Amino acid sequence: MTDRLSGKRILVTGAAQGIGLAIVEACLREGAAVFCMDRDAALLEKSIEGLGGEGATLVAQAGDITKPDEVGAAIERAGRTIGRPNALINNAGVNVFDEPLSLSDADWDRCFDINLKGAWNCSKAVLPGLLAEGGGTILNIASTHAFTIIPHTFPYPLAKHALLGLTKSLALEYAGRNVRVNALAPGYVQTQKVIDYWNSFPDPEAARQETLRLHPGGRIATPEEIAKAAVFMISDECPFMNATCLTIDGGLSVQQHPA
87-90 and 97-98: which strand pairing? Predict the structure, then answer.
């Protein structure tokens, strides 16, 4: 622990597992107070219990980021517990992959409601506090899907492209008021979602090896590696980084063909 995030009061969405949980753990280690939000109440409670339970620097509340009233309730409770957030990490997201002409309207709405509108709902709720305090930070967890397209993943890349647009637009809108808005774009990360994806194939190990083969280093990221980058971007160590997307994918997105 180096207290790199001392004084930070961070709201993390999608905090119950995977990258979100790793970010929560990393922020706590660096001295931040963290308010965790996730729509899976049972899983969130279990995850927080594993971190030692609720306390002065760790508070959790179940909530759906697609519902502004639930986001507002979380912000209000954060203010009463850890203090009004001066940083936000929009991590919550969902994979929605389909053929364009097979995609239902319901799945289209689900993709954009969670991956884009949810991030906007949280940003909109946090921004007044950031401006009132004279500044703060927002970090959107995007994806390499935000600037590359993998066939058969429609409409997920559309939502992530739009999230990158939201990042840049808010960053320029509030740069003069000391609010930094950036994005972090992971590639493949060994989360339960990726493991479930491999397990959806008749030969899960072959699917895993095919994914690894795409990467120049022969492996994919761990959630903890993504969390380390998030800590840096939310910290005061990069005060002039704004409207930027940092890619963490082991070189995947710049390699034209696997070796």
Answer: unpaired
Contacts with 158 (C-beta within 8 Å, 6 or more apart), sequence order: 111, 112
Does residue 82 form part of some domain? Answer: yes
Residues 137 and 196 in one domain: no
Residues 227 and 234 sit within 8 Å (Cβ to Cβ): no
Exactly one of 156, 174, 188, 197 is catalytic; which is it? Answer: 156
Confidence class of residue 256 from pLDDT cuts 50, 70 and 90? Answer: confident
Residues 32-85 have pLDDT tens digits of 999 999 999 999 999 988 785 555 699 999 999 999 999 999 999 999 999 999
Q: Which domain holds residue 210?
A: 189-220
- How many whole angstroms separate alpha carbon 180 and alpha carbon 240? 8
Tell whether the model's pLDDT for residue 228 goes beyond 90: yes
Residue type at 164 in one-letter notation: L
Task: Specify the CATH number for the domain of residue 152.
Answer: 3.40.50.720
Respond yes or no: is residue 174 known to be catalytic: no
Which strands make up the sheet holding 245-248, listed edge to edge? 58-62, 33-38, 9-13, 87-90, 136-141, 179-186, 245-248
